[in-house]
Amino acid sequence: MTTTQLLPEAPTQALPPPPPAPATFADSPLARVLRQPFLLGLFLPIQDGGWSISTLPRSTDWHFDYNLALTREAEALGFDLVFGLAQWLGKNGHGGAMKYREQSLDSFIATAALASATERILLISTLHVLYGPWHPLHLAKFGATLDHISGGRWGINMVTGHIRSEAEMFGMQTPEHDLRYEMADEFVSVAKSLWRSDDNLTFDGRFWHLKEAFVSPRPRFGRPILVNATSSQAGMHYAARHSDIVFITSPGGAEIEAALATLPAHIAQLRAVAASEGRQIRTLINPTVVCRPTTSEAWAYHDAIVAHADQAAVDGFIGTFARSDAKAWRNHQREQRIVGGNLHLVGSPEEIVDYLLRLKAAGVDGVQLTFYDFREDLRAFGETVLPLMKQAGLRL
Questions:
Q1: Which is the most buried residue in 140, 257, 277, 387, by most CB within 10 A?
Q2: Which residues contact 185 (CB under 8 A, 6 or more apart)?
Q3: Beta-strand runs (E) in the chain
Q4: What domains are there in the chain, each with its CATH number?
Q5: Could you tell me if 33 and 80 are in contact, meaning their C-beta atoms sit under 8 angstroms apart?
Q6: pLDDT at residue number 331
């Protein structure tokens, strides 16, 4: 079937205007967070193995209680937000002796469940909006409810799904790359209209239809926080229209110098697209931080992680993404996949802060951190790196 055959007719009428973005409300949780010079987030390990395909002993655990403790620790340290990954994997996950990521919590539910256990930190759930029977009315109602429970701290990282085997779990075929973003554009546009409309909404779209639909309660600050991850032109245009925060990847791979060389042009392009829509967006990138008191100790830790790689699981993980049409991650090398994260920051606390300063200078607005041993490494980050970030003007 060709792409043109897949495209339904244009919608019969326009949607009402979208609600204002939460950052436009001075007292919103998002506006408060955006006052920080450099955003600081934590990418929760709600999947077995976290982000590192290694068997080196560590505490990292996918269970909810472990992630709840991490979130509370991050909130106590002053972190701005936490994310959860969404995935659909079969038995044995990506394979290997560790059955990498076979066990995982659902991001939408697990991250939302943190709302009543926290007070300040933003909570971003990830959801494949094009899989299965999801409808914009579902998300609008669920999102309004979570906005109410969290006091406006909840947001959604809307992903279109690029892995063929995931779509096949739902009895679907993966739509072509740019078409997925057209579908997501209509999906979120409908949800935004439902969050704003004071009347019943009827809409006959290309992909979704509603008749006399209504959602309550009203989100407190216009709508929930909207996030997406992208490196493609279609994804950038979607982000420019809808997202408050964009999760970017390094075009140069995970090595920090290569990343710093390629990120400025990449971010400038994204910001130019947003400006063409009359909007300003913030960017986050995901480094894995490998930090020890000295440079040599940090690299010894890094090398031990790599030395304990589960090679069969690495093969399975790389093979999954090789069958994808996603535009990101293309320049990430095999060894870099073992450590995980979109780029690697390895060194002493002083070196880590220097890397963060250079990322900010390259145009990055913040980081969404991962660690090898989350509990221990997050605690050490708070004790040794965070005070230096404040001294350097990265944090208030």
A1: 140
A2: 238, 241, 242
A3: 39-44, 81-84, 122-128, 154-159, 201-204, 209-213, 225-229, 245-247, 282-284, 287-291, 343-347, 366-369
A4: 3-391 (3.20.20.30)
A5: yes
A6: 66
